[in-house]
Amino acid sequence: MKLKRWVTFGLVSLMLVGCAGEAAKQQTTENSTPVATTPPAQSAQSESIAQSTNTAKPTTVRSGSFAPGEHPTQGVARIITQAGKAFLELDEAFKTSDMGPDLVVILHRSSDVLGSTKPPAYPLKEGDYALLAPLQKFSGAQRYAIPTNVNLTEYESAVIWCRKFNATFGAAKLASQ
């Protein structure tokens, strides 16, 4: 009796596995769609263009070292161009305090941001700066895209600013290279 059950179970299992395999094969055939392929010469050319765009050497346009404002801030900020786009880079030595909420990176019109405001907060006036982005991290190298509508000739400094309390953590006067 037990042997009969095992034989029946085995035969049913074989049939199910066979049917499932055939159904999967049929489904693959029905769902397959032709895939467009790029000719080898065109593919190699596209790859070469992509690599040259990604590896285009950046050109430093202006740079400067941070001076501390309300909180210790150090490192170098530089405006670079690469593949036709402008970026603000903070170097590996960049470091600022983590004491502020809502820290942002901005470009400021003044070449002496700290000297043109009042300590201890060094507050900024609306319209004197262009907001780039929230600060990515409190130390180390980082890069911020500069929007194409920002006229770089109008901005003289890179600033780490606490937007919530209108406090300038540090500023770097950007001099031409």
Characterise the protein shown here.
With 177 residues, the protein is α+β, with helices and mostly antiparallel strands. It has helices spanning 2-31, 40-54, and strands at 59-68, 73-74, 76-82, 85-90, 95-96, 103-108, 129-134, 142-145, 157-162, 167-173, 175-176. It has two domains: 1-31; 57-176, Immunoglobulin-like. It is built from two helices and eleven strands, in the order ααβββββββββββ. The strands form two sheets. Strands 1, 3, 4, 6, 7, 8, 9, 10 and 11 form a nine-stranded antiparallel β-sheet that branches. A two-stranded antiparallel ribbon has the order 2-5. The model is unreliable at 19-53 (pLDDT under 50).
What would the principal axes of the Cα set say about the shape? extended
Identify the CATH class of the largest domain.
Mainly Beta
CATH hierarchy: architecture of the largest domain: Sandwich
What integer is the average pLDDT?
81
Succession of helices and strands: HHEEEEEEEEEEE
Kindly report the CATH topology of the largest domain. Answer: Immunoglobulin-like
